[in-house]
Amino acid sequence: MTGFVDAFTVLAVGSGAIFFLAGTLGLLRFPDTLSRLHALSKADNLGLGLIVIGLLPHATSVSAGLKLACVWLLAQLSAATASQLIAGVARNRRPRA
Amino acid sequence: MSSISNPATLFGLCGAALVGIGLFTVIVHPGLLRRIVGFNILGAGIFLIFGAVARRGAGAGFEGDPVPQAMVITGIVVAFSATALAVAMLQRLFDLTGRATLEPPAPEGRPGSET
Amino acid sequence: MNALLDVVLVAGLLALALHVARARDDQGAIVGFIAFGFLLGLGWVRLASIDVALTEAAIGGGVTGLLLLRVEAHTRDSSAPDRTARPITIAAAAVLCIAVTAGLAFVILNLPSPPPTQAPAAAAALDATGLENPVTAVLLAYRALDTLLEKVVLILALVGVWSLAPDHLWGGAPELRPAVVPEPLSYLARVLPPFGVLIAVYMFWVGADAPGGTFQAGTILAAMWLLVMLAGLRAAPDTRRVTLRLLLIVGPAVFLAVGFLGFAMAGGFLAYPAGAAKPIILGIEAALTLSIAVTLGMLVSGPSKRAPTS
């Protein structure tokens, strides 16, 4: 049983890390602001989500698990807002660029 | 001599380097705002050295000596209040002179650069 | 594996510090500094100082970053191209800074072994305070005088900042709201504060026994208030408002009153009577948290920009 849980954690955290890696590569390599934002929000949403899901079975108490979930939700909220704000600035600037 | 691979020593050395970088920015950079940021980097370096000392002082079931840790927390807050005051003075200087530096204006200085 | 993480963190910190020193524009340098603050928070976790990590991320990266960005926007396009320092000055400064760094590195490599520590003393007295977080015990019991004076420093800094407003604006309100508030920002400012306040209360409450405490809680409260002011949902208060000024001093005042009561109850300034230390400390912390939140919020907002109303 423990082995199964550990394998699940490794799988989920591992794929989360891959999403972060891909998101970082996209941030560095994509040509314009909007596609870079796209790469970044994918990494934030899916990568962090997978890592949190992977860690949940190891939470020692219900409240620790809830805190992990809160971290994910709050990061989602702030990432979504920041992306919207940056995208808004990028759109306003486009006619000039 | 303690081993570099020990996190306390490694972050202590990092703190020493940050002090140097911050001090260099404070001395050399002409812009006052950048000097304030450099001052904060300098402070961060000193706090890290405190952190290294605290980590080495682990004992009695604690992972670090709580006294330097508490001093760093106090230090971060005091550094912030100093930064806020410095930044407010910079803003006032800019409102009065239109410049954000203490360097004398270049010879062909723009009008408005004098009070 | 952990050593690798440490090396990556240190390399990132040094790279960001060099970026701050060399970036062409101030805005880029400040963004680098904010990233530096968050990375430094991770460094503090690696040094097993979670309390410091929380403070660094909240104040060092977050609130300081907001303050610097606000002033950068205010003073942008300020002057003719700055004269850079003369090569001889740069060389002399470089030699001096390398000497300072080398000296500090020498000291760190030759720190006394076994290291001197106050940890056993802090542990021995912990039971008497009723607390379990030794850092909180140092801040509010063993070295409470330092913390009291630090609160006074915060207020003095705020007095200094307010005094920098032009005479006709004295007593007026600072202005944080941008000309146009983007829709997502005002959405965030409506959704986030309830959670933020909850997290701040939690931070304050667990601070007695686990990492957290007044500074961290106060900073989160200040951040929520700043968010609301930035989005223009509530205007910043006039700096001459009596309620504002009472909130600013309630923390230090309660602290000072407890300090003097210590003479009567326990035979010394800031001495707590045996057995009642924990409720007294929590009371002081509650008042301090409010004062810290209001002080930090007003410090970031800066001098007043509008003439006082009424």
UniProtKB/TrEMBL annotation, chain A:
InterPro entries xrefs: PhaG_MnhG_YufB
Transmembrane segments: 6-28, 72-90
Keywords for the protein's UniProt record, in alphabetical order: Membrane, Transmembrane, Transmembrane helix
Family matches, as Pfam families: PhaG_MnhG_YufB
GO molecular function: sodium:proton antiporter activity
UniProt keyword annotation of Transcription regulation present: no
Signal peptide range: none
PANTHER family: ANTIPORTER SUBUNIT MNHG2-RELATED
Name of this protein: Multisubunit sodium/proton antiporter, MrpG subunit
Source organism phylogeny: Bacteria, Pseudomonadati, Pseudomonadota, Alphaproteobacteria, Hyphomicrobiales
UniProtKB/TrEMBL annotation, chain B:
GO cellular component, one term: plasma membrane
Superkingdom in the source lineage: Bacteria
InterPro entries, per database record: CPA3_antiporter_subunitC (IPR050601), NUOK/Mnh_C1-like (IPR039428)
Compartment annotation: Cell membrane
Main location: membrane
One Pfam assignment: Oxidored_q2
Entry membrane topology: Multi-pass membrane protein
Assigned keywords, A-Z: Cell membrane, Membrane, Transmembrane, Transmembrane helix
Listed transmembrane segments: 6-27, 39-58, 70-90
Keyword check for Membrane: yes
Protein family (similarity comment): Belongs to the CPA3 antiporters (TC 2.A.63) subunit C family.
Protein name (record): Multisubunit sodium/proton antiporter, MrpC subunit
Native organism: Bosea lathyri
Automatic annotation (TrEMBL), chain C:
UniProt keyword ATP-binding present: no
UniProt entry tagged with the keyword Lipid metabolism: no
Subcellular locations according to the entry: Cell membrane
Annotated ranges, domain Na+/H+ antiporter MnhB subunit-related protein: 185-301
Protein name (database record): Multisubunit sodium/proton antiporter, MrpB subunit
Keywords (A to Z) from UniProt: Cell membrane, Membrane, Transmembrane, Transmembrane helix
Family designation: Belongs to the CPA3 antiporters (TC 2.A.63) subunit B family.
Principal location listed in the UniProt entry: membrane
MrpA C-terminal/MbhD domain residues: 12-75
InterPro entries on file: CPA3_antiporter_subunitB, MnhB, MrpA_C/MbhD
Membrane topology listed for this record: Multi-pass membrane protein
Pfam families the record matches: MbhD (PF13244), MnhB (PF04039)
GO annotation, cellular component aspect: plasma membrane
Listed transmembrane segments: 47-69, 90-109, 148-166, 187-208, 214-234, 246-274, 280-300
Domain of life from the UniProt record: Bacteria
